[in-house]
């Protein structure tokens, strides 16, 4: 049974903790065993939302298959020093050096940085903290505007709800994508997003509905957006007629399946272009036959945004 030890700091954000903890707890309920523990440097921890939590002072025995998670704390700006002791920093370093994994949510990356675990690695954090964290830990490489980054058993996430995405990813790594999908469905979390997706993505904007048919089709498109996906194939995946699919999907998301796929392609292409790809290369990578369609969609999207 893999162990997950959450290290709690004063004024931590409840969702930074509760989101990942719920993922692993739900996985437990579904038969994917995890042993959860909550450790802090004092027995009581006040949260940013005013709830007081109790934690154990002693660390459990951890091995190479186990995970330490540091949730974030209230931090519109980084404090002069992260609120962890030298002893805790050593625990983080030793666990990683012995083959274990460490993860952070939001400003929790500051704790990993203080332990030296960001040096020489790619990492991310909440978009409001990226500049400060990049300046504080220049030996690492900050990755901006993504949900989470995995590098050499150091997993960092953007903050708040992205901790759920991070934990679902870890469940998928440990038990497979089907297990992660079961957990997400049990939690009524349909936006199962990848780490390189934007912190504000079309997947999230158009998942705020409860249509199971639309969610099943979105799962297919999200995974295979760069492929040709005929409406008939999507309808078969959802178990409905093409006409019903178009009606239900449009009612739920405000978009046709094709427009949703184009939006995902466009968003991914913009991300690639922003990281140095040419328009032609980006168009090819996201599934367009040539760059003309991408240029038309970019122009239309720019016009709509400016209007």
TrEMBL record:
Record-annotated HTH araC/xylS-type domain positions: 215-307
Q: Spell out the coiled coil positions from the record.
A: none
Annotated SMART domains: HTH_ARAC
Alphabetized, the UniProt keywords read: Transcription, Transcription regulation
* SUPFAM superfamilies, per the entry: Class I glutamine amidotransferase-like, Homeodomain-like
The source's superkingdom equals Bacteria
Offer an example of a GO molecular function term for this protein. Answer: DNA-binding transcription factor activity
Q: What is this protein called?
A: Transcriptional regulator, AraC family
Organism this protein belongs to = Kribbella flavida (strain DSM 17836 / JCM 10339 / NBRC 14399)
